[in-house]
Amino acid sequence: MEKKYWKSIEELGPGKPASLAPEEEPVSPVELLAGRSDKLSASRRDFLKWCGISFVSATVLSACENPVKKAIPYLNQPEELVPGMASWYASTFMLGNEYCPVLVRNRDGRPIKIEGNPLSSITGGGTSARVQASVLSLYDSGGRYREPLKKGAPVSWDEADRDIIQQLMGQDGSRRKVLLTPTLLSPSTRALINEAVDHIPGLEVVIWDPVSYAAIREAHRLDFGQAVIPSYRFGKASLVIGFSADFLGTWLSPIEFARDYATRRRPLEENAPMSRHIQFESRLSLTGANADERIPLKPSEEKQVLLALHDALARATGSPSSGSHTTALYDVDVLARDILEHHGNTLVVCGHDDTDMQGLVNAINHMAGSYGTTIDPGCTYHAGQSDEKAFEQLVEDMKQGQVAALLCYRSNPLYHYHDPEGFLEGLKQTALSVSFATTKDETALACDFVLPDHHYLEAWNDASFKTGSYSLAQPLIHPLFSTRSFQDGLLQWLGREEDFHGYIRTHWEEAIFPQQSTHLSFESFWVESLQSGIHENPATEGSPPAYNASALPAARERLADASLSDGLEYEVYAGISLGDGTDANNPWLQELPDPVSSVTWDNFAAVAPETAQELGLAEGDRLRINDKLSVPVLIQPGQAAGCLSIALGYGRTHAGKSADNRGGNAFLLYRPNGNGRLRNGSISQWVRTGSGHAFARTQTHFSMEGRAIVRESTLDKYREDPAAGNELRAYHLKHMNTLYPEVPHEGHHWALMVDLNACTGCSACVIACQSENNIPVIGQDQVRRRRIMHWMRIDRYYTGDAANPGVVFQPLMCQHCDHAPCENVCPVAATTHSQEGINQITYNRCVGTKYCINNCPYKVRRFNWYEYATREKFNTHTTTELGRMVLNPDVTVRERGVVEKCSFCVQRIQEAKLRAKNEKRRLRDGEIRPACLQACPTGALVFGDLNDKDSRVSQLIRDPRNYHLLEELHTLPSVGYLTKIRNPKETNRT
Amino acid sequence: MLSNETSVALVKGNKSYGQITGELLATVEGKTPLWWFAGMTIGTILLAIGAWAVYMSLAEGLGTWGLTNSVAWGWDIINFVWWIGIGHAGTAFTIFFLVFRQKWAGSINRAAEAMTVFAVVCAAMFPLLHMGRPWLAFYILPYPNTRLLWLNFNSPLFWDVLAITTYLITSIMLWYLGMVPDLATIRQRTKNKVGRFLYGMFSLGWDGSLYTYNRYETLMKLLGGLAAPLVISVHTIVALDFAVSVLPGWHATILPPYFFVGAIFSGFAMVLTLMILFRKAFNLYDYVTEKHLDNIAHVLKYGSLVIGLAYVTELFIAWYSGVEYELHTFFHARASGTFSTAFWIMFAFNAIIPQLFWFRKARQNLVVLFLVSVIINIGMWFERYIILISSLAQDFLPSSWTAYHPTMVDIGIYLGTFGLFTCGMLMFVRYIPIVAVNEVKPISRQGHANEKTTQDHER
Fold first, then answer.
1. Contact call for B73 and A850, based on CB within 8 A
2. What is the largest CA-CA distance in chain B?
3. Closest CA to A602 of A643, A651, A642
4. Which end of chain B has the smaller Cβ count within 10 Å, N or C?
């Protein structure tokens, strides 16, 4: 009991209780300090105590330093830039034969995401994995050159220019001065190079591609008198026959072909009935996996079938070139009849860079009436202008010391040439060697000078991939390093005042503006072309040129000889992820599982199970082939017996941390042959040098175990019953009962439909998702431990026998179940269901019990086993300041120990909703495009609102082909799959 | 009832109370034997390995474990369930014998309870460590906060938290309160000042009066009654972690009773292992008699039958349901296929080998008893391995099927828990009488004589 103080005698008196004093009497701070403890619980002593504690803790805590992060505002804010809002610029991706007009998403002055440009008639907004990943190469801190180098030491641009010009101009005219480039799609660059050739005495250009398409040109020159690669129109073909042409993966123009091809793979389309696709190939390619009929043949057997098919067709049409070649490998007579049945709608393509084979293919296409219908010779590709003979001559001259100067623009022959030692020997005898490499490569390392070029997102450029179609590339960011575009350099050397931007403008004004008639002034033409990124002249139908069969007999004879090989053969190919290996230092691409083998970070020699048994090989054995390269063996179902297939693009030695010393360099086996380069050859010698190599695969069990995971049927059955192959759906719907009330979804109810027929498995969506959602790279070892972080994966299953299995792909992302098993087991309610049907994770709340991962029947949830985002050991790009610039600021970077997964790109949903709200309108169907859907070249994914009964996704979910994965568990997924319908021959007849 | 037929032989020899006290407190009062130091050394080494493994998990992340995107629980939860199972027996002993007035277990209670406490502590480490962000473990507690964050009461993991903490607290209370009279006895007898102070403090002012004894007995009965449902609930709820999920092999109503029986089974086996060791180490042949061991062997025999029944029932239901996923899990992953070795080890060790105890000779052979008790605990570990890994590694979509291999860190943590358990038990045997003196006295011959006299008087 505290002492009671009294103020007056009345207060003390018994009759007057203290409560008479007003309760609400305010207490002044003075009273407080003076210790008026009768009103207050805190005394002066308490006050001082708290003061002391506050001071001490403030002092102690402030001693723990927090890193200071500076955010510097603009001094003059650019007009079009609103912080937090993305802006989009059109540009163009070009790498090797791959071309894609793109839109680049810019946030706060840095490009963070590549999307397809939907205005392009070639790609229609589709992309590929390599296009998606190209943004990361911009921020490649370990792989990019940062300044000009002279013999490996930094040098100023002026000094480098002075030295080079001096040497270039000063050399005697007897020795060659060569500018080595791959096929350049840029008309302005070509024009500029022509000017340079005119002005720099003795300068000549040699065009040489890492992956050659020269044989198609040569065959067309021989047969039609024009050295062109004509347009292939898969959208017009009802019968597609492929000979090792991976046209859905990497061949020539895969985005365009996949898109066109998919238009003929939808069973419902009345005006474009489903095509039939027959593929002859050695390796199980993405294209072969999608075919209705696939025949595994080793390259020599392919020649045999091609010859027999030609002869059968010639006999059937009564063509004079008919011969008597037959084959036991395939019933070519039936196929020849089919070709005639589809006369004018057949398309035969061949991926071999062999003039003889291409000549035969031309003859078949000619007899099938393809020219003018499925092949448009009037519209030609500008890719593949490589001149093998000129390059061989160059190497020879270099070795002889006949070359005074070699300028390598986008060329890396020390890696891409089959005889790097020979080339290096020649390079040493070359007085001046200059490389314009953007990123580190083997040739640049050996050159006297490196004048680093911009990344394509930093530079002006233009492109013309096909006749009549043009696109522009514009800089999205100030150059990150002291780099200079090759073209600006040339202009400087020529003493020109203007930069390449001005040069392109002038070129467009002179060459392209006159071709069109919609714009009266060049300025409006230029602005529109720059905004839309592309300019396309209306197509002009050319009449098919006259066919000349004079080269055919000789070709047939040579092929007949070559087809008699019975030994072990090899074949090299460009894979989905790395292609020719130019951007091999891109960790996203390295970690992208090959869609068929599911191997990451490695290449391998694919061997058929039968051949492996014959040769006594086991998976993981190391083989040294023809004493050239050493690769591990992968036993691949569907691989042609007697043939080893090896992907190009691996085995880099000086490209950077992600690329170096992974797999073997298959370019060593990619040898010149006349005008082209042979992708195949015979294995004269192989030795096993080791065993036990562990591949980092994302999937190791390939059978569906008889479960109805991918539901499949044939076109005939589908026509009888649209629910063919999907009979289980009706059964499950009938038996679906629940004790719980249905979950109402107010407003929107998001859903995603996947058309398994349109999906080719190209994996563009996987990288798009990785780019959009800041998904970390984890490195080979972690992938081996089956911890890949991709939110979206492409499952692949085999059916049938191992010699030639059927293959199905299934893109799998979070199914956003309305009765999600993950949600009710989380103890801290970190994963919850949104009102709009999205299964969401609150990263901050997640403690990482991983119960949700276990309880997810689809196993789509991912766990941050380590601090993947910032630990260098996992080979991730986000460990450097520069690499972190690629991060999407709309998506949280996840900490170690939390679970993550597909969010349906909730940030994009939110963005679209806000935009609609600001514009005071309803959301339009199809307005929200998650990253995977945006990237898809074939339109296999459809996203929308199920509450809108007219939306496309609602219509598709009512389609009889629709089913939900594991629907018997009653998880009620928001993702639906449309059954896969194939169009094989047998059932067509019945 | 058991008590009637066994009462005679529960404590061998015609011992007086004083003799009993002297003999039983010898472990505490005598010189520390050499083997104790040896045991402590081994325990400490194991603890150090465990500390390294825990450090790796905390500093590096759960990536140091062998888990994958599909198998997100591995050795951590296997060991958790295994230890919790072992931690069953002690409290079960005390409670069931308290509630059913089975006095024969009086000499085993104390050790069994100590085992429970240390086993549950070992087990409780795992749920904490298996979290991705253990520093936020408090999120799992229902504490009021201004952010309006609340728990998901639907999640069995939250039930787990409640069940385990309640069980741990109750087990500690039972164990500790049960030893208060003995602590008081040591306090009286010890000459060491520090010892006297500590034992005095922990004996809570025990005065040994009848009044105190009366209250004590009431308290113990109440606690026993309260704890009885907990013994059942704790492992039932651990079973619900699995049964509430959708995975084939987990999603089964049989799991709660099956887990409970399994826990009692493994717990009794562990008690048997430890008692055989203690009996030898401390020369307790007169207190832990062949009869005790025989009784435990009987319990194990019946437990094994029930476990075997559960295994067969699971297989039958999987076949009878015709569900393709269940069929795969039970017949193609477990009974044959990838996990068949582990499955048949489990089946043989748990359901077949303990059937040896039908033979009196086996029950009376100490070597057989010891080996079988160890075999049962190995078998029970494999049972949890089978349940966890085979269901996770091969579930619905074959595309995400993975293999599972533990890492050194996984193994290190497990060894660490052995270290913790060993050190804990050794500290216990050194400083606290392993056999409850106050509980043994009533069942000794003199105790019976006293009881008889009292009963005669009452008549």
1. yes
2. 78
3. A651
4. C
* C-alpha span between A874 and A777 (Å, rounded): 7
Mode of pairing for the β-strands spanning A534-536 and A469-473: antiparallel
Beta bridge partners of A900: A862
User: How far is the C-alpha of B226 from the C-alpha of B204, rounded, in Å?
Assistant: 22
Nearest chain A Cα distance for residue B326, angstroms: 12
Contact criterion met (CB < 8 Å) for A785 and B66: yes
Q: DSSP letter string over B73-110?
A: S-HHHHHHHHHHHHTHHHHHHHHHHHHTT-GGGHHHHH
| Burial A442-473, CB ≥16 within 10 A → b, else e | bbbbbbbbbbbbbbbbbbbbbbbbbbbbbbbb
> Residues with Cβ < 8 Å from A146, sequence gap 6 or more?
A452, A481, A482, A483
Q: Which two tokens stand for residue A168?
A: 């270039």
**Which residues of chain B does A707 touch, with a Cβ-Cβ cutoff of 8 Å?**
324-325, 396, 398
Q: What is the 3-state secondary structure (H, E, C) of B207-247?
A: CCCHHHHHHHHHHHHHHHHHHHHHHHHHHHHHHHHHHCCCC
Q: Is domain B15-142+149-443 annotated with CATH 1.20.1630.10?
A: yes
Min Cα distance B42 → chain A (Å) is 32
| C-beta atoms surrounding B176 within 10 Å | 15
pLDDT tens-digit profile of B275-297? 899 888 888 887 888 888 888 89
Q: pLDDT tens for residues A463-510? A: 999 988 999 999 999 999 999 999 999 999 998 989 999 999 999 999
Is A263 in contact with A272 (CB distance < 8 Å)? yes
What is the full DSSP assignment across A789-805? Answer: --SSEEEEEEES-SSS-
Chain A nearest-CA distance from B69, in A, is 5
Six token digits for residue A338: 């089919």
Domains detected in chain A: 9-63 (no CATH), 218-381 (3.40.228.10), 567-697 (2.40.40.20), 712-736+748-987 (3.30.70.20)
Residue A923 falls in which region: left (phi positive, over 0), alpha (psi -120 to 50) or beta: beta
Residues of chain A positioned with their CB less than 8 A from the CB of B324: 705-707
Cα within 13 Å of Cα(B422), Cβ side: 21
B396 touching A (Cβ < 8 Å): yes
Lowest mean pLDDT of A767-781, B47-61, B81-95, name the range: B81-95
Confidence of residue A327 (pLDDT cuts 50, 70, 90): confident
Q: How many residues does chain B have?
A: 459
Secondary structure of residue A862 in the 3-state scheme: strand
Is the Cβ pair B398, A704 closer than 8 Å? yes
Report yes or no: A821 and A971 within 8 Å, Cβ to Cβ: yes
Residue type, position A419, single letter: D
